Amino acid sequence: MKKSILALALVASGTLAITSISAQDQAQIPGAIDVSRVEAGNYALDPAHTLVSWQVSHFGFNDYFGLFGDIEGTMTLDPADIEATQFDITVPITSVAVPSEGLRDHLLRPGTDGAEPDFFGADPEPARFVSTSVRRTSETTAIASGQLTMNGNTGPVTMLVEFTGAGQNPMSEAQTVGFQARTTIDRTDWGVNYAAPMVGSMVDLEISAAFERQ
Fold first, then answer.
1. CATH 2.40.128.110 is the classification of domain 34-213
2. Taking the domains of the chain in order of start, what are their residue ranges?
3. Average pLDDT, stretch 146-158?
4. Model pTM?
5. Which helix (H) or strand (E) holds 207?
């Protein structure tokens, strides 16, 4: 009986120790969803930790995914006046990453015999999104509207934006804020027409962004 009690005590103490360690680890996480941490000022994207993912239907069988990286941009932010927020984001099309090397080559393939390329061509201009309005919808969410220029065409896009964390980056020591944004666009509105609608014309975009205060 004494051995059983001792064993239970040892298990309990071990559990408490693990819980204590876990609590310490959580306390050390630099970012938190706490709007009081957000500082007003001018921000620049951290291109090493900002991504745009895209998702499109493949012949109606399943969805295909890809990524863009090396993204640059600026943001002016005042937590006391969210609707005055402005941002300007540039996405290099040539950074596109997909598991299939053949598909990547096709996305960046020039047109033949003077014809337009199927997708973006060999030397596409970066896509650019410039905000025109931001409307706060809750403590941590907003709707951002703006103009997207891509593939030589410009059109309106509206995104749902969620605040995902703020704090000091332990590596760069910069005050950092993070956001997740989601939207859906019709790629044919920007002249990317190849194989539509068999390969879906509607493309889901998700942006994971880290901005550092300058």
1. yes
2. 1-30, 34-213
3. 98
4. 0.85
5. strand 199-213
